[in-house]
Amino acid sequence: MDDLGTLTRGERNMTRSGTIAARAVVHCGLGLALITLLGCGGSGTATKADLPAPIVTVAPPVERMVTRYEFATGRIEPHEQVEIRARVSGYLQAIRFQPGRDVKKDDVLFEIDPEPFKADLARAKANLATAEADLATSEADLVKSQSRESTTKITYDREEAGFKKGITAESIRDVAKGMYDEAVAVVKASKAKIKQGNAKIEEANANVRNAELNLAYCTIKAPISGKVGDRLITEGNLVAGGVGTTTLLTTIVAEDKMDVAFDVDENTLEQIQQAVRDGKIKLPTKGEIPAEAGVAVHGTNYPLKGSISFSDNRVDAKTGTVRMKARFENPEPKVGERILAAGMFARIRVPIGEPVKSMLVPDSAFGSDQGIRNLYLVGPENKAVRLDANTGALEGLSLIHI
Question: How far apart are CA 303 and CA 174, in angstroms?
Fold first, then answer.
């Protein structure tokens, strides 16, 4: 970009020809005020020619490489947060953590009275033992019934052969057949009993497993690492667990990384996406756009470096905005707390393109006339010449590039 790209063509030519020194008037307002007062003087004893020209302070513009940004504000959210609730009901026996401290995954947080669940486990194991014994009895009965089936089959086959030869009476053959059919039925019943016994064992095993889980759930552990919140219930209270209306015990927030959730309008979103397509935004990882953030302690600076890790799949038709999230590392310092905390207000900016050379002038040097920004440059004979200017975004605390 031309250093004087926002000035008029004639003004650029005059500047380039060297007839105007490239210095911006910072405090020209004082001189203008003096001129106005002289013009309105009521004494009439002095004229403009009698007064010396006012002396004003001037400052040279600054050339600097400037990056264009899109700005937004948002709130900090943890990338992981968990509500700690009981999975079984019972009386809270112990609390094993200090509120507001860091906890590691699988650290014990709460203990519920385990005695009722120990009794349930013992009962389930007893039922399993009974089912296993019943199955053993059924298997023994099957062996006996199969032996009887084999014996009656031999007798029936012999009597049937004798009947066909006319040696054995039909009534004797029929009795042998009846005994064999009865033995076959007993074998089928024994097999069915064994199948039922196996099902009971599976059910008993499931009951034992459920009882073991319930007993294990009496010890409530941290599912993630992070900072634990306040205890929301004290020892001795009845805790409601299971599914549905359960007792909230505390919360854990993972703080090693934090997300800044913010909304951008459609135009900003399109500009960011176009900059990515044009290659002006370099993606460190596919789908992750670089972002910078700052909180109140940082003033107007943006020292935190991260990337946009989430963009919603639709624009809100009511607000014309889309929700985005940028993720930032939040390391633990040697002394004190981490910089970012859930719920904090944060400022965020997204660089659009590579830095370009720009001219910067102190913001205090600009005046305004009917909404048009202007400033004064030192012209020929050291006189201030007013120039209208198109200004860009603020850069730092007091400079604005034009």
Answer: 101
Length of the chain: 402
User: For residue 256, which of 349, 368, 385, 342 has the smallest C-alpha distance?
Assistant: 342
Please give the backbone phi and psi of residue 232, each rounded to the nearest 5 degrees, phi first.
-100, 0
Joined tokens for residue 231? 């205890």
Buried b (16+ CB within 10 A) or exposed e, 349-360: bbbbeeeeebbb
In this structure, of 51-55, 145-149, 231-235, 244-248, the range with the lowest mean pLDDT score is 51-55
pLDDT of 49? 58
Distance between CA atoms of residues 178 and 257, nearest Å? 81
Longest dimension (CA), the chain: 166
Separation of alpha carbons 224 and 259, rounded Å: 17
pTM of the model: 0.66
DSSP annotation of 293 reads E
C-alpha distance from residue 390 to each of 62, 236, 402 (Å): 16, 70, 6
Contact 379, 367 (CB under 8 A): no
> What is the predicted pLDDT for the residue at 155?
92
Q: Supply φ then ψ for residue 63, to 5 degrees.
A: -95, 130
Closest to 214 (Cα-Cα) out of 91, 117, 92, 95: 117
Give the residue among 186, 183, 185, 161 at the shortest CA–CA distance from 172.
161
